[in-house]
Amino acid sequence: MSQFSDKFLGFFDRLNPRTVLLTSLSLIICISLLMIASASIPFSAARDLAPLRFFWYQLAYVVIGGIFAMAVYRIPLRFYYHRTHMNVVFLMWVAALGLLILTAFFGEVINGSRRWLDLGVFNLQAGEIAKAVMVFVTADYVVRRSAEIRDNVFTGVRLLVWYLPVGGLLLFQPDFGTVLVLFATLIVIIFVSGAPALQYAWILFMAIVLGIVAAWLEPYRRERILSFTDAFDDIQGSDFQLARSLIAYGRGQLSGVGYGDSVQKLSHLPEAHTDFLLAITGEELGFLGVAVVLLLEALIILSIMVISLRALKRRQLRLSYTVFGFAVVIFGQVIINAGMTMGLAPTKGLTMPFFSFGGSSMVVLLIMIGFVLRVDKESLEIHNQRLNDKY
After folding, report:
1. Where, by residue number, does the polypeptide cross the bilayer (predicted)?
2. From 170's CA, which of 18, 160, 191, 252 has a CA 20 to 30 Å away?
3. CA-to-CA distance for 299 and 344, rounded, in angstroms?
């Protein structure tokens, strides 16, 4: 542990990362519900739906996600990592892959993408599940193969055997944003595991090459990459969403035009309650409102990282890398979503974690939080029982 890490961990220990995490999470969900209620009313009215339909749906997703999170919190960590359950992570990967295959054949097409399985009362987005599962897979792999990863340049590359089927099915949907988050998580976990630079450099090189090829083969992806460099050269075409997002931020200035008074949500910015909810927040609540949302996201990420550092300090490597991977997933989505709404990155179909409307995203993210809290609860018990090497 570096001196900086020790000071950082000590500071958050005094604040109690669990308390910071739960408080920040509660606050951002409350703000999310308020902003979804505001941003979705015109969208609902245009389709003759109940005015607060999406507010109630999101509240239901929060409740469902909370129930799943509490269930995960009650599962002992040995279920995932103990020798008698050594195949659980593999079974999770098979299940995620199976859901992606089902989506490819039977998924519902929404806005040109086949990402959702229609379960009647709920559309399941398998890509959200894949993000969480691949964190488990990567953390387990780098611990089991720790000696090989340090000595053999190509051991980390073999992880692509697990990633390429998942990534290929996601690109087929297409869901390029989730693929970016997955490979970023892979590279970061390999980096923090202590692998030589050449180890993750190979993966980074291959990811960049595959990313460029995937982006350039699809005309709409190529158009998005080129259009974000000038958000106003084709405001009725490829720049439609981005231009209106920037206009929303511009109207909001420091303190916003007032809650409920957004103009861009009035059918100017399509589906403003989902990927571009942060822009509507910027218009109605201004820079200050956006800053609060991003601060809460940062506190959630930092709290998760502190819990990961605690496990690392106790040499519970699987737990540490898994929790850290969840932090990377959330951080990646925050950066991409905020970047695309502000014109700093091409438009991607990624939600702002815990904030944008989205059932699968909210439920899976809360399940991640349930696991993180379980690690925070059980890590010290594992340490006292001298079982660190099994976790």
Report:
1. 20-43, 55-76, 88-110, 178-195, 200-217, 285-307, 319-340, 352-373
2. 191
3. 22
What is the CA 247 to chain-centroid distance, rounded?
Answer: 26
Burial class (CB in 10 A: 0-12, 13-18, 19+), 236: exposed
User: Per-residue b/e over 151-160, b at no fewer than 16 CB within 10 Å?
Assistant: eeeebbbebb
Are 250 and 243 a contacting pair, CB within 8 Å?
A: no
* Of 158, 148, 93, the residue nearest 126 (C-alpha): 93
Q: How far apart are CA 124 and CA 104, in angstroms?
A: 13
Question: What proportions of the chain, in percent to the nearest 5, are helix, strand and coil?
Answer: 70, 5, 25
C-alpha span between 183 and 208 (Å, rounded): 10
pLDDT of residue 343: 81
Query: Is-above-0.85 flag for pTM?
Result: yes
Side by side, the strands of the sheet bearing 123-125 are 108-110, 113-118, 123-125
| Cα gap 134→114, rounded to integer Å | 21
Alpha-carbon distance of 350 to 339, in angstroms, equals 11
**144, 195 Cβ separation under 8 angstroms:** no
Condensed to tens digits (0 to 9), the pLDDT of residues 116-150 reads 888 877 788 889 999 999 999 999 888 888 777 77
